[in-house]
Sequence to fold (221 residues):
Amino acid sequence: MITLHHCPQTRSMRTLWLLNELEVPFQLRSYPFDKTLRNSEFLTLSPAGRVPALEIDGERMFETGAITQYLCERYSPDGLGRSAGTPDRMSWLVWVHFAETISQHTAALTQQHVALYDDHMRSPIVMKLEAARVAKCYAAIEARLSTPIEKRDYLLTSGFSAADVSVGQAVYMARHFAGLDAFPALQEWYARITARPAFEAALPQGDGIYERDFYPPWPIE
Fold:
């Protein structure tokens, strides 16, 4: 049996969405986004005290990119994954791991806007810089989806894959801080992939990290 340890609206949502797409049986254990993740029991699952943590066949995994590769290789090597030697394998690896590039900027923005409670702790400069870096990531996705030669429906020419899940979930979090209006191909792609039932099933059922749909830079002038 697979057990996913999860906090709503965090990177573990990426793994939850993927498991829903794979349609494999799993158990879900949800945690609040607080010091619970630092207790000794949870640290045996994820030594840095982060989600996701995955238990499978008596083994434990953490890090979303590694989890995505393992689950796809095991359950869907040429469906949601791309096998070694296939034409889109290199692109699949690049985009699965590009999700973490987006997420590191979103994590900095989440800290500034959400985790730091006192205004004097926050940095408007950091907020603006990190939002600009997210926009550069959006531009990279836009370029991938709208090349001069052809427009892609998904990140890979061969169709929907776990690369769309990984990057799509990263964009889901990032759009709380940087809008998609300047990126039409990205908007169409995002609407397409988030209409999937597996994405809907991964959305928080109760409280998540974000109380607002969008957080403008602070202070608002």
User: Anything to note?
Assistant: The mean pLDDT is 94.
